[in-house]
Amino acid sequence: MTAHILVIEDEVKLAQFIELELKYEGYEVTVANDGLAGLTAAREGSPDLIVLDWMMPGISGVEICRRLRDTGDKVPIILLTAKDEVSDRVAGLDSGADDYMVKPFSVEELLARVRASLRRSQEQDSESLQFGDLKLNRSSREVYRGQRAIELTAKEFDLLEYLIAHPKQVLTRDQILDRVWGYDFMGDSNIIEVYVRYLRLKLEAEGESRLIQTVRGVGYVLRD
C-alpha cells in the first residue's frame, strides 16, 4: 500500500517542494500550512508519517507532537527546524518527534529519513497495535487498556485485532464475518453483536470510554 504522508509547513514554497518530491517517490501527500489545520489533518486523516515544521503560527510543531503523543498516537514524526542547538534537538525529541532535520536540508536526506521511519514503523506495526490507551500485541496476544491487562478469548482477540488494525474505518458486517470467522462461516450472523458486547464489557470494565462504535445498518468502527 502507498504510504500517506502529511506535510505541515507554513512556508508555502517549501511545502510545495516537499510535496512534489514525495509524490515523485510515489507517496500520497496531504499538505497543511498552519498548526491547527495540521493537527486536525493528523487526527482525522490517519497519516503513516508526518513531516512537521517546528515554528508555525498558532500551534507550534512541538505542541502538535505533544498533543498527538498525549492521545496515544504513535505516527512517526520528522521535525523540521532552523534551530540547531543541542538543547533544541533534545526539546524536539522529548516532545515526541522520531527524527529531526535542520534547515536547510538535502531533499535526498529527507527522503532517506522518510523511508527509514516508515520501515521502522512497519516493523513495529507488525507486532504491536495501539489506539488511544488500547494496546494489542500480536505475538504475545496481550491486550492492555492503559495499565490494565485484559484477558480475551481467541475469537475476541481476533475481532479486536481486526478493528484496531483499521482504526476510524467503518467495517461492514460482511467484512468482519469474512476476516474474523472465515468466508465459509455458516453460523448465525448475530455472532458479531454477541462478541462486540463481550469486548465492550471487558474494555469498559472500569468505566473507560467506549471505543467500539456501532454504525447502524453498516457495521462497526474503532474510534473515540
Estimate what percentage of residues fall within beta strands. 15-25%
Q: Biggest β-sheet, characterized?
A: 5 strands, parallel
Shape: elongated
Distance between the termini: 25 Å
Unreliable stretches covering 5 or more consecutive residues: none
- Give the H and E element order: EHEHEHEHEHEEEEHEHHEE
Task: Supply Rg.
Answer: 20 Å
Reading side by side through the largest sheet, how are the strands ordered?
A: 2-1-3-4-5
- Which structural class fits the helix and strand makeup? alpha/beta
CATH superfamily of the largest domain: Response regulator
In short:
The protein is α/β, with parallel strands linked by helices. It is built from eight helices and twelve strands.
Relevant terms:
four-stranded antiparallel beta sheet, alpha/beta, Rossmann fold, Arc Repressor Mutant, subunit A, elongated, 8 helices, five-stranded parallel beta sheet
